[in-house]
Write a structure and sequence with these properties.
172 residues, single chain, two-stranded antiparallel sheet, mainly alpha
């Protein structure tokens, strides 16, 4: 639109809205403006009989019958950086598993303490395997030492200890 046409007011039209009465329960409908049609608007702004050009209707979109016709299955495509990251993480996880397994086999991560020799101890009145384990091996876990004492002396449980009994105790 040109500025001169706007200034002269030639292109402005007054729009009036008619009153619409609606019965209760009826769905709302669009208001119609008098003098308009329901035909589609022209695509181009520069068309019409004044310019000797005909307006062409907009092409209609092709309708799909199902939602999956135009969808292609997606394939995961990694970038060069993504492939490098995936390879690095895989190598780190595999390397950590090998290191833990190797240390476990070598005995470094073995929870059982390594004892050098055994000594004989006579059980006193009121003593338990737990107290004997704490006295003879103060740096070790008493539960592991009690288990080792029971294995060495063929005891089924810790209550089988009798005062005056001589036991083989593992010591570092």
């Amino acid at each position: 639109m040109s500025t001169a046409a706007l200034a002269s007011g030639a292109l402005t039209t007054e729009v009036t809205t008619p009153e619409v009465t609606q019965a209760p329960g009826e769905p709302r409908r669009r208001r119609r403006i008098p003098g308009t049609t329901t035909e589609p608007l022209p695509i181009r702004a520069c068309s019409g009989p004044d310019l000797l050009r005909e307006a062409r209707p907009a092409p209609r979109a092709k309708r799909r019958t199902t939602w999956s016709e135009d969808i292609e299955p997606s394939v995961l495509q990694l970038t060069r950086r993504g492939k490098l990251l995936l390879t690095t993480v895989s190598i780190l996880i595999f390397g950590a598993a090998v290191a833990v397994l190797g240390l476990r086999v070598a005995g470094v991560l073995d929870p059982q303490p390594q004892f050098d020799h055994t000594i004989q101890v006579q059980v006193g009145a009121g003593q338990s395997l737990w107290s004997i384990a704490q006295e003879t091996n103060p740096t070790e876990d008493p539960a592991l030492v009690v288990e080792k004492i029971a294995d060495l002396n063929n005891l089924r449980n810790a209550a089988d200890v009798i005062p005056g009994q001589t036991l083989q105790i593992p010591v570092r």
